[in-house]
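Thread: 4Fe-4S ferredoxin-type domain-containing protein, structure

OP (GT): Posting the sequence first so everyone is looking at the same thing. Length is 65 residues per the record. Can we get the structure tokens written out before standup tomorrow? I want them in the notebook alongside the other entries.
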Amino acid sequence: MSKAKTNSNRCKGCYYCIKACPKDAISIMAITNKKGYQPIHVNEEKCIGCGICYQVCPDYVFEIV
């Protein structure tokens, strides 16, 4: 089964993925990344690997594996 993996250092906090996720599997982390943004986190138990997050992300944060 596919899952979304992330590179949080690429995240710039647009949060398009949070709005697009049909399973509410993506949330904002309480830390900041190297660029000073609060990156996202994928709850792997909720993620169904649909790839919508990958499609809407302008910063190539996601990889579907």
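GT: Both are above now. Quick notes for whoever picks this up: Helices lie at 16-20, 52-56. The chain has one domain: 4-64.
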